[in-house]
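Quick start: read one record
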Amino acid sequence: MTKSDLIERLSEEARLPKKQAEMIVFLIFDSMTEALKSGDRIAIRGFGSFKVKDYKPYLGRNPKTGEKVQVKPKRLPFFKVGKSMRERVDESKDHFPLQDDDGDLE
């Protein structure tokens, strides 16, 4: 599902004009991004939680040349799936064939 798919679905399900659905989706994503930038944790019951993890700088290696390189500090968002979501997705295996990482049926 893409952002456009989400906007389309919201527009149809909530019977909203597409422009209004688009504004709502952008507002939600912008609000979540701002919260994460501030270091806040986002918890959505039944879905999961988002948090930011800070990484210190470290000495790494260029895989092509083997040269040592200094890797800058990073701040990255992480998502942890909630128990309810995990269970609901797992139940779907009974209705849809399982696929391997390449998308081939097992």
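The chain has a mean pLDDT of 92.
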